Amino acid sequence: MSRTGAEIRASKQKPDQRSWIKRMMGGPSSTVTVSETKAKLVQDRISLAERHFGQLCDDVASYTRKCARLRDKGDQIAKDLVDYTEAETLNPSMVRSLSEFASNISTVQDYRQAQVTRLEAKVLTPLANYGLKCKHAKNDIKEGMKVQDLEVSQRKKLDRLRQKSPADRAQLTMAETELQKASVKASAMTKNLEQLIDKFEEEKLKDLKKILTDFVNIEMVYHAKALEVYTECFQNIRSFDVEEDIEEFRAKMQPSNSANRMNMVRSSSYTSLESASEQQATSSIRRQHSAPNSQNATPIKSTTNNASNSPLRATADSRNGVDDEESEEEDEDDDDDDDDEDDDDDDDEYTETETARTETARSTARTDKPAGQSEKTVIRPPSSLIKKVSK
User: How far apart are CA 288 and CA 282, in angstroms?
Assistant: First the structure.
């Protein structure tokens, strides 16, 4: 039995009406629309987290680098202070204070190094890892979107078959089966996306809370330790005695009168010692030049007036006679040698010097003797005269 055109038109309109009713009542098409909306929401949330977490990662990395630079500058300050204390020769109070201050500053930089290490491990690394997490989440969303697109394409194919060949039940049944499979996959993917977005949001909030908590704890520990050490630095500066150092500096610049006197005495004593040594050296040189030769010169001892009355007068006369003979022989020898004249002059000077010394010694002996004692002069003849007389 054939159908009329009105029946055919009515049969064509019924699927559209049923599909519209199902869409209004939350049928498969509405499910697809909801899945697409959820997928877009998840994708937007992941992109937002990726963007802002990346910015936080860059900021924390810059902050960590600045802390490391502060650590290096603090170490340089401590090194410069140590060099200054080693080069300083005055101001002992300042040297002590700066040495302890430099040690404490170096301790602060050790705490800053611990701060940098903890920031890199507990703050910077988790933020950097969020880039990889967001990338994996985006890949999962793409897979879910492919399944949803497959469901939409199968639904469109079924609609076309119903419009073109509504009497072909075999193709319609096959298309409906494929659509049902795609719908099951899309539903499973929708649930997975829901779980994914739920898990992602939960991990994001927990990780952000932990990261910021670690950041605050790291900063609090550093600043607490640094505050303790900076308190010691303040005490080091308080122990800096300016008056003591300035008094020592003034003492070095303006020494006391006693010190001046001691310096003057030392300089005068050094001058007198140098002059005495120069005079002694000059006199020794003069004596060496004025000393007679032992071979040609024979010292002659002069006698005083009291010696003329002594019983050794004859001996003296004989000695003079012998001396005259010796002098004649020496004169004959002097004619043969021109250098002996200089020696005779030296002998005369030496004889005069010895005579003056003998008279001075005798006058001193007379004054030292008590009154009433008789003065006696003993003249000893030279050994050469005694030998000649004995011969």
Answer: 10
Cα distances (angstroms) measured from residue 161 to each of 13, 148, 158, 176, 177: 14, 20, 5, 10, 13
- Residue 300, C-beta contacts closer than 8 angstroms, at least 6 positions apart: 323, 351
Burial environment of residue 201 by CB neighbours within 10 A (0 to 12, 13 to 18, 19 or more) = middle
3-state secondary structure 145-185: HHHHHHHHHHHHHHHHHHHHCCCCHHHHHHHHHHHHHHHHH
Domains recognised in the chain with CATH numbers: 19-252 (1.20.1270.60), 297-366+378-390 (no CATH)
**Per-residue pLDDT tens for 203-239?**
999 999 999 999 999 999 999 999 999 999 999 999 8
164: exposed, middle or buried (Cβ count in 10 Å: 0-12, 13-18, 19+): exposed
Joined together, the tokens standing for residue 212 give 């910021």
Quote the longest CA-to-CA distance of the chain.
Answer: 208
Query: Which has the closest alpha carbon to 137: 44, 218, 225?
Result: 44
pLDDT tens digits, one per residue of 307-363:
444 443 444 444 444 444 555 555 555 554 555 455 455 555 555 565 666 666 555
What is the DSSP code (8-state) at residue 124? I
Sign of CA dihedral 94, 97, 103, 109: negative
Stretch (H or E) spanning 186: helix 169-238
Dihedral sign, Cα of residue 108, residue 114, residue 116, residue 118: negative
Comparing C-alpha atoms, which of 142, 80, 84, 75 is closest to residue 107?
Answer: 75
